[in-house]
Amino acid sequence: MEVKAISNSGNDTLKNFLSTKINKNSKIDITAANFSIYAFSSLFNQFENSDELRVLLTDSFFKQNETEFLKRYKIAQNNNKMFGNKYEIKLRNKMNTSFIAKELENLIEDKISFHELSDDKDANGTLMVYSGEKDNTVIPSFSSMTSDVLGVTESDSYSYHTAILDDDSYIEKMKENFDDLWNDKNKSSEVTDKVIEKIKTIYQENSPEWIYFVSLYHIFHDKLNELDEDSIAPKNSDFKNSIIWNTLYDFQKDGVMGLIRKLEKYNGAILADSVGLGKTFSALAVIKYFELKRKRVLVLSPKRLRDNWTLYTTPDVRNILRDDYFNYTVLNHTDLGRDSGKSGEINLESFSWSDFDLVVIDESHNFRNNNSGNNGKKSRYQRLMDDVIKSGRETKILMLSATPINNRMNDLKNQISLMTEENTKAFNDYGINDIDNELKKAQTVFNSWMKLDPEEKTTQSFLEKINPGYFKILDMLTIARSRKHIEKYYDTKAIGSFPERLKPITLKSDIDNSGQFPDLQDVYKKIGNLNMSIYQPLQYVIPEKKYLYEELYDTNIDDGKSSFKQVDREMALANLIRANLFKRLESSIYSLGLTIDRMINKIENTLNKISESTNENIRLQTISEFDDENIDEIFSDQLVGNKTQIFIGDIDLNEWSVSLTTDLNILKDLRESTKLVDSDNDAKLSDLKALLREKIEHPINGDNKKVIIFTAFADTAKYLYDHLSIALLENYHIHSALVTGGSGDNKATLYGVNTNDVNDILTNFSPISKGRDKTNNSISEEIDLLIATDTISEGQNLQDADYLINYDIHWNPVRVIQRFGRIDRIGSKNKRIQLVNFWPNVDLDTYLNLEQRVKGRMVMLNISATGEDDILNSNSNKEMNDLKFRKNQLQQLQKDVVDLEEVNGAISITDLTFNDFKSDLQNALNKYESSLNSAPLGMYAVVDSDEFENISNGVILVLKENVNKISDGSLLPYIVIFVGMDGKIRIQHTQPQKVLSLFKKLSLGNEKVNSYAVNRFYDETDGGRDMSNYSSLLSKAVEAVKGVNDEADIESIFHPGGTNIRKNIIQESNDVELISFLVIK
C-alpha cells in the first residue's frame, strides 16, 4: 500500500493528481454530499476519455419541504449548489456557465450516472478510480465534488487530502460498499434524469421576463416572508375569521400583512397609500391583529376625524364591524396638549398615557415638526414621545398619511423618531448607520433639486440624485401604493374598478352681475397694503422691554442650537391672515365681508382700550400658537390655544395706534365694497345654481343627482346652504345638508337626520358606501347635496356621489386631490365622475402675481433639522415663491384630474419604494414559485435593442456583494447596474430603481425568446464559449462600484458622525457574485 499526501496548494492539487490517474480504462465512483458543474468541467477531458463514472449523492438536491417563503428560498439555494458554491464565484463570473452546462449534459448522457442516497442511509465521502489491476486509487474523506475540494479554487477551509494507492483489499472493500448502496433500490435511487433537467435550466434560452423574475426573486428574497400571509396568520385563525379581514380588498390585505411585518421587525410602519384606497380599514385590521394578541391600542386622530374611529368601538347599529368587538382607545391630537378635562368620556387628568403596546396616528404628518413647548410646557410631540412612547410598555407606532412628506424630505425625521425613540442608530442592523445623517443628505439633495427649472424638476431627476440610504429607510418602513399600482397589480374585476375621470370643468365667475364691485387688482392691492398690526403687537414693544418678551416667548429648537422668535411668529401670522383675506375674496364676497367685520371690531375694541387706558398693567393677549389649516379660529372670540400676554404699558401706543388706524380705514373701505354684492347679484352663486340645474336635469350616471360642494370656509358653506337648500327642495325635492365641523353648525333638510352627528349626515348622503341598509331602516329618502368644509376632505368614503365642486381652490394642490378622493374611489358604483373647479376671473399670470404680492410666503415655518430658520424670506426660491412652479401646478389642475404622485414638482413617497417590483415578484411567485426555487445563478436572456426607443447596447448586471454585507445602498448586498458595450456605465448602481425600471421595461411581458437576438449573441461569443467581452464588462462594473463607494467613504469624513471607511471594500470581480444578467443587443 502506498499513501500520497496532497496539499492542494500550488500545482500539488487533487485535480492535477487525478488528471494523471484517470485513463480510458478508468471506472470512477464518487460518493459526495454535492457537486458542481465547474468541478466536472475542470476534469472534463479526463472524464470524457474514461470508461464510466458513477456519482452517489449523500445530500438531496431535489426535495423541497413545505415551510415559510424564506426557508424555502434558503433550501432552494442549497439545492442549487451544483451551479457553484462561494469558492466558485470567480468561475461563474466568467459568465460562460451556460456553455459549461451544455457540455456537461452531453458528458452525463454519455458517461455519468447519478444516484441519491435514501434519507435513512448514510455514507462517507470517497472518490475511487479503478484502472485495472494497478493504478487504483481511493481518496477517503472526500466531502464534495467541487472546485475548492479539487484545489482549482482557493478556500479558507481545510483541503488536505490523502490518496491510498494500490491497496487491493482496501479498494475492493470500498467498491463492495459502494456497489451495495448503488444497486439496492432501498438504499439509493436513480436521479440522472433529474440532474440533466436541472442542468438544462442554466443553458436553455430564457425569456427576458423570466430573468427579470429570477432577479427580483434574489434581490428581494429577504422580503419574501412579508409576502407570506400564512406565516403571520394561518388560515382559520381568529384574525382570518374576523369581519374586518374579510371586508378588505386583496390589495388592502397585502398592505396589512406588510404593515404587521414591519411593526414586528422595525417597531414602526407608515401606511402612505394614495387618497381613496381605504387606509382606515387597513389600520383597523392591523389593530385587530394586535388586539387578538391581547395588546392595548391607542388611536390618535385629528379632532375632525375622531368619529371615524370611535364608531367601530361602539355597539352602534351603524358599526358594521361591531361583532369584532374592537376595544381600542381614541384621543385627539390636541389632547396631548391637555392635562385636565374630558375627551369624550375619558378623564385626561387620570389617563395613563404609558399603557399602550400599539399607537396608531391618523394624519401623522401633523407630527412632522418637533417644536418646543412654551413656558416650560411640553409640546404635543414631546408629550407623545416622553409620556406615551418612551414610558411604560414597549410601544409600536403605525402612522397613516397620504402625505408623510410635505415640502421637506426631513418631514420624515420626527415621524421616524417616534418609532425609534429618537435613537438615530436604531437601524444599524439593516444597513442604516445614522438615520439623521441620511435624512440630512436627502434634504441637501432636495434643496438642490428644488432650485432646478420646472422642466428639469422631474421625479426621475430627483431619483438620480437621492442617497440610497434615504430610499432604503422609506422602503423599510412604508407601504405606499398609488391608484395606478392597484389597477396594474390587482384584479379590478374582483374588487371593482375606479370610475372614469371626466375632464375637469373650469369656471371663472365674475364677482357680481351688476359690475359695481371694484376691479380685482385694486382690491388685492388694498389687502396687500394692510399692516396687520393688530396681530403683531410685539413689533411695537419699546426697545428696552423687548428682551423680557424674548425670554418669555421665544422658543428654543434643535436642543438650543437655534431659536424661533415670537415676533417672527406674529409676522408669519400676519402674512397668513393677509392670504386668508385673499382666499376669502376668491371664495365668496359674503365670507370676506364677515371676516372684515370681525377684524374691524377687533381693531376698534383695541383702539378703545388704548384711549381709555390709564393703567399700564392692563394685559393684551396675542396669539402664539396657530395652524394655517385652522386660521379661521383666529377670528373667533373662543380661540382655543396658547396666548401670550403683553402689558399695554410696554407698547409704543402712538406708533401702534397710527398703524391700527391705517388698517381700520382700509378695512372699512373694503367693507363698503363688499356691501355692493348680495345674493341676488352674486355672479358666482348664479353660476353655481345653473351648474346644479344642469347636473340634476342631465345626470352623468343614470339618475344619480348627488353633488358635493367643498369650500375652505365655513362662512361660505353656510351662505351656500342658506341660498340653495330651500329652492332645491321646493323645485326638485332634493334634500341638502351642511357640514362645517362643529355639531351645532351642521344642518339638513331631511327629517330624522341627527345633525349633531356628522356620520349620520354622511350616511344619509352616501347610504350605499356607508352601509345604511344594514344599520338604519327608519329613513328611506336620501340627501343629494352635501355642502362641506375640509373637515370631511379626508378619511371619508362618499362614493355614492359622482359630482364634486370646488367652490374655491385651496392653495395646496394636495387638498384639492384629497377632496376629490371622497368620490374617486375603487369599487365605485359610478362609471364616471366629474370634478368642477371655480377659479377667479383673471388670467393665470395675473392671478399668480397678485397672490404672490398679497401672501408673500405660504410656507410659514420651514425649520430644518439643522436649526436653519427660513422665515418670511422674500428672496427665497422655494416652492411657493417659484412662480413657474406654481403656474405649472395650477395649469395641471385646470386641465386634468391628477393623483397625489402626479402633481408637477411633487415627490411622492410612492416614488421612493420598491413596491412595484415587489408586486411583480408577488405575481411571479403565485405562478412560478417552484421554478423560481430551482432557477440557478448565472442565468441570462437577450433582448433586441431595436425593439425599444433610445436604448443602447449593453448589459444589465445583477450582482451580490460578498465582502461587506452591510454598507450604503438601498438594495445591498445586491447591486444592479447597466453597463454599455463600450464599458461606460449607463446607469450607476446608486440608482437601483432606475436600473430596475429599465429592466422591467425591457422584460415584463416579453415572454418569448428572441431567436434573432440570441443568434447574434451566439455569433459574438462562439455559442457562449467566449464570454470575455462580457466578463470584462463585469469587471468594469465592479470598478465603478468600488469607485463610487470610495468617493462616498471619503465624503463621509466631512459629515459629522458619517465616517464610513469600510475595512472590507470591493477589490475585484471575486468580491461580487453574478446572479443574473440581461444582454441588450
UniProtKB/TrEMBL annotation:
InterPro entries: Helicase/UvrB_N (IPR006935), Helicase_ATP-bd (IPR014001), Helicase_C-like (IPR001650), P-loop_NTPase (IPR027417), SNF2-like_sf (IPR038718), SNF2/RAD54-like_C (IPR049730). It comes from Apilactobacillus kunkeei EFB6. This is Helicase. Residues 260-422 form the Helicase ATP-binding domain. One of its GO terms (molecular function) is hydrolase activity. Residues 684-884 form the Helicase C-terminal domain. Keywords: Coiled coil, Hydrolase. Residues 873-903 form a coiled coil. It holds the Pfam family ResIII. GO terms for biological process: DNA repair; replication fork processing. SMART domains: DEXDc, HELICc. It comes from the Bacteria.
